């Protein structure tokens, strides 16, 4: 018999079924579904994490269209309000809509309107006529400099359900902030998440915690798999059971007696890289994927994770990360006798004292270590440990020489000793250990 959904699940389902653009409040949800305000608040926050609602200061929480990875770089007007710390002057019912592009209105009105399209965002200063024309063209309006607009414009915005937003920032700063947000979204788009590769429960074999060891044998014959998540009748993960757990065990024993309790799990927003590290270090072949209520959503296998990582390494990157910036500053000056890399310290890579940041130097040496070890042994590797010693501070705009020396390379591991020089004097040392990943 199927059990009823929990209050939390009922609220989430209720929120997902609301019309896009609907305004939500804790008190309203609590009253409609007869739950406590605390329960309603937690469910709304969960819905926000899942991307079904967005909370805006001085406006409230609204139902928005959940983004998929294909359009994650597109922003909603609600997100723009939060990015620019804006105030909504009118057209609140359109905050859930997605903007296609933005136009800076720094030209004559006639010329400006040639570039304003429906679904866009017109960024402009204290120009009432431009505000009105932008709305009539089907675009939302972002007024910079903290200016207001006429009541007629606000009324038009409400009628057209197109937001008019005011921000205290200037036009250049606002454009930079929105560009930065889109850029960050592009980087996120390139990061492979567990949700991209998980095998859902509809295709996953699992065992209930109230069955016996003989049921493992029956499922093993049917599926030929040897590892299964163990769940209760509410689909909450209780453990994992593998062939190793049931070898020589009485078939009438309950699965609960032989399973591994409190297994390692991941959620859909965990990165595939993080899951790979977890599985490699712990020697795990299969991980349950759970939701916020500890319910089974599916599984991932070590083989699928490693295949996905190898695939993503062959994809072109769109957004530039800190590691990409570091790589751009690193020059390979190696000779047949000596591995040598040169790195220039830019202002962005320093700490508040104006010297090279500890974290940046660690990333630089990790990158060098990967390159050197990949010359010796092709394939994937993960850096297991970096021990770094700063002997002298490295100043801003310095050019440093990095000399890695291989101490040992085996089938499983690589060990490096790395020395860092500035103007011929040693300024840092590091010891790095990496583990090679077998390709499937």
Automatic annotation (TrEMBL):
<dbReference type="InterPro" id="IPR046342">
    <property type="entry name" value="CBS_dom_sf"/>
</dbReference>
<dbReference type="InterPro" id="IPR028979">
    <property type="entry name" value="Ser_kin/Pase_Hpr-like_N_sf"/>
</dbReference>
<protein>
    <submittedName>
        <fullName>Putative transcriptional regulator</fullName>
    </submittedName>
</protein>
<dbReference type="InterPro" id="IPR029069">
    <property type="entry name" value="HotDog_dom_sf"/>
</dbReference>
<dbReference type="InterPro" id="IPR000644">
    <property type="entry name" value="CBS_dom"/>
</dbReference>
<dbReference type="Pfam" id="PF03061">
    <property type="entry name" value="4HBT"/>
</dbReference>
<keyword id="KW-0129">CBS domain</keyword>
<dbReference type="InterPro" id="IPR006683">
    <property type="entry name" value="Thioestr_dom"/>
</dbReference>
<dbReference type="InterPro" id="IPR036388">
    <property type="entry name" value="WH-like_DNA-bd_sf"/>
</dbReference>
<dbReference type="InterPro" id="IPR010766">
    <property type="entry name" value="DRTGG"/>
</dbReference>
<dbReference type="Pfam" id="PF07085">
    <property type="entry name" value="DRTGG"/>
</dbReference>
<dbReference type="Pfam" id="PF00571">
    <property type="entry name" value="CBS"/>
</dbReference>
<feature type="domain" description="CBS">
    <location>
        <begin position="259"/>
        <end position="317"/>
    </location>
</feature>
<dbReference type="InterPro" id="IPR051257">
    <property type="entry name" value="Diverse_CBS-Domain"/>
</dbReference>
<dbReference type="InterPro" id="IPR036390">
    <property type="entry name" value="WH_DNA-bd_sf"/>
</dbReference>
């Amino acid at each position: 018999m199927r059990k009823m959904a929990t209050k939390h699940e009922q609220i989430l389902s209720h929120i997902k079924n609301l019309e896009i653009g609907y305004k939500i409040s804790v008190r309203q949800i609590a009253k409609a579904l007869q739950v406590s305000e605390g329960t309603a608040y937690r469910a709304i926050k969960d819905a926000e994490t899942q991307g079904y609602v967005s909370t805006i200061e001085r406006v409230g929480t609204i139902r928005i269209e959940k983004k998929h990875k294909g359009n994650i770089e597109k922003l909603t007007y609600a997100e723009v309000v939060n990015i620019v710390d804006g105030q909504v002057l009118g057209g609140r019912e359109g905050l859930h809509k997605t903007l296609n592009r933005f136009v800076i209105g720094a030209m004559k009105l006639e010329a400006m309107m040639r570039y304003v399209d429906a679904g866009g965002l017109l960024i402009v200063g204290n120009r009432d006529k431009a505000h009105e024309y932008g709305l009539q063209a089907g675009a939302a309006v972002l007024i910079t400099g903290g200016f207001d607009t006429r009541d007629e414009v606000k009324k038009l915005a409400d009628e057209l359900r197109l937001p008019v937003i005011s921000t205290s920032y200037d036009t250049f700063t606002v454009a930079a902030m929105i560009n930065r947000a889109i850029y960050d979204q592009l980087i996120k788009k390139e990061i492979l998440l567990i949700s991209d590769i998980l095998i859902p429960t509809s295709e996953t074999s699992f065992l209930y915690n109230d069955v016996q060891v003989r049921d493992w044998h029956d499922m093993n014959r049917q599926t030929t798999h040897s590892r299964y998540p163990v769940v209760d009748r509410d689909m909450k993960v209780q453990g994992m059971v593998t062939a190793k757990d049931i070898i020589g065990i009485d078939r009438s024993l309950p699965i609960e007696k032989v399973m591994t309790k409190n297994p390692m799990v991941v959620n859909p927003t965990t990165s595939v890289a993080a899951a790979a590290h977890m599985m490699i270090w712990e020697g795990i072949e299969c991980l349950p994927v759970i939701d916020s209520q500890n319910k089974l959503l599916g599984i991932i296998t070590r083989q699928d994770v490693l295949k996905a990582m190898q695939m993503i390494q062959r994809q072109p990157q769109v957004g530039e990360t800190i590691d990409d910036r570091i790589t751009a500053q690193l020059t390979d000056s190696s000779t047949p006798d000596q591995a040598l890399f040169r790195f220039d310290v830019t202002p962005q890579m320093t700490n508040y004292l104006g010297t090279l940041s500890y974290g940046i130097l660690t990333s630089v040496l990790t990158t060098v270590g990967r390159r050197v070890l990949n010359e010796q042994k092709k394939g994937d590797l993960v850096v297991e440990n970096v021990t770094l010693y700063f002997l002298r501070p490295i100043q801003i705009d310095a050019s440093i020489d990095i000399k890695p020396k291989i101490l040992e390379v085996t089938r499983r591991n690589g060990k490096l000793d790395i020395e860092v020089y500035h103007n011929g004097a040693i300024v840092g040392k590091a010891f790095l250990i990496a583990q090679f990943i077998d390709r499937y």
